[in-house]
Fold these 2 entries.
Entry 1:
Amino acid sequence: KGIMRARDALERAQYKAAFTTPPNPALLIEAAHSFENATRLDERYSAAWADLGATRRHLGEFTPAAEAFTRAVTYDPIHPSWHMAQGDAWLAAGAPFRAGEAYGAAVSSAPTLLPSLVDRVLLARGPDFDVLAQLVAESPQGYFELGQVLAVRGFRVEAWRLLSSAALADPHRP
């Protein structure tokens, strides 16, 4: 019965926080407390961990957000979007290697996320770029996807390097 009350409170707080524009920090904090209470009542409540991560990210608390997403995927690893959100939070927290691990888990469970990961790599055109580019380029498809996007966006030298690597890694690709 206590878990049901916590879930109800969690849903009310989530609804209030999600539909307020701009987000109301007080409601986000209330939502975070509700999600924390739900996880205390049921530690394996993965959706509450994911919602806590999203709320913490909206509050600008990137390391706690990443840790909450880590708990969510620990208890329910079949949600690639949670792995992506975990990676985004680690990247915002300044931990590109941990972000890369999370992104890698997302892409390995849902290869269709590769273009989304390519977009994240391009947005990171700073010190995190090399780490994320290496992750994307761990497969011939990753080299190819990233190379194509870089070519379209005008990064011809980088594109040529990646497309050449894709051709070497998979000589049967047209």
Note: DSSP finds ten helices and no strands in the chain.
Entry 2:
Amino acid sequence: NILMLQADIAAAQQQYEAARTVYLKAIAQDPQFRLAWVKLYQLAKSGYGTRAFADAAQQALNTSNDASWLRRLLAEHYVNQRQTTEAIAMYETLLANGDFTEDALLHNNLANLYLASDAEKALQHAEKALALAPKQAFSLDTYGWVLAKSGQYQQAVAVLRQANALNATDPAIR
């Protein structure tokens, strides 16, 4: 796709606004062009066109019946932008549609998102993430923090130590 190449060249030259515009044109020509969506997402993650990405993705979701991959990408974008309510809505829609139901990272993200507002849902998703990825530091870490939030401090410390032992170099594992 020539538009994709033009956008890639603009991005390589650090002309991020121009790249964003051309990626959007490529997507307008083919709304299912996943690589263009991913590149647009990466620009938004870097701080270029965050609103444009969300608006374009939401518009595409409004007109497509089969875009769970795009809904997931938009959910991740909302997580990056700290838009908790919007991220939860996207993830919950995915689960309600039967998409990504066995994805540990999705459940882990939901547990983290619910941690401040709904301890029961946070625990539910943390337990699901842990069941799907029992030996992964990310799932243990989140489960540990959910336990701590619910006042189960001794169990939380043990789980958090286990997470840290698995991946002590990751600053997200605290």
Note: The chain has a mean pLDDT of 94.
